[in-house]
Amino acid sequence: PHLKEVELIEHITQLLTQPESIRGLFERTVEFAYEDEALKDVIKKMRPHKFSKLPIYNRKHEFLGLLTTDAITYYMVDHIDQVNCNIPNVSVKDIVSFDEKHRTVSFLPIHASILNVVIEFERSLLSGKRLNAIILTQDGANNQKPLGMRKAEKAWQKATIVQKRHRVLDP
């Protein structure tokens, strides 16, 4: 084989055996809420950062669901008689359990690669469920403190950027 072909094979081998880690792309401080927190307090956490999604945990750090602005809105509309332009005295758990969409979240370990993100998207597509977020934890378990989080769309954009940066063959 020619030198260029050998270099290409070596590059492909490196990409497959040592794919780029998502740690630097995803890791950051993650705001989250506990199921027993009052909705008004959680909204105060979400507003300054313009978060539209927030992971919800119980006090044992077990993931319970994803609180979304859509779920809050649907809850308010369904409970309009109780709202009266005030945020009702409800817990986050009330909202998450009311949300019929059961937002799909994948958990990945902090040392996962960008290939793992692609695999999670494929699993989501094959199951017919829309992936809403990817949360990083130490070992990828849903009962660990979140170390990073991306909305699914942002995760896919990051994966696409990395793929383009490492494109081996022109289409």
Kindly describe this structure:
The mean pLDDT is 79. It is built from 8 helices and 6 strands, in the order H-H-E-H-E-E-H-H-H-E-H-E-E-H. A hairpin with a 5-residue loop joins strand 2 and strand 3. The longest helix is centred in the N-terminal third of the chain and has 15 residues, at 3-17. The protein is α/β, with parallel strands linked by helices and 171 residues long. The strands form 2 sheets. The chain has a 3-stranded mixed β-sheet with strand order 1-2-3. It has a 3-stranded mixed β-sheet with strand order 4-5-6.
Name the assembly state.
Answer: single chain
**What proportion of the residues is helical, as a percent range?**
40-55%
| Mean pLDDT over the full residue set | 79
Strand order of the largest sheet: 1-2-3
Q: What general outline do the C-alpha atoms trace?
A: elongated
The total count of strands amounts to 6
The residue ranges in which pLDDT falls below 50 over 5 or more consecutive positions are: none
Largest sheet: 3 strands, mixed
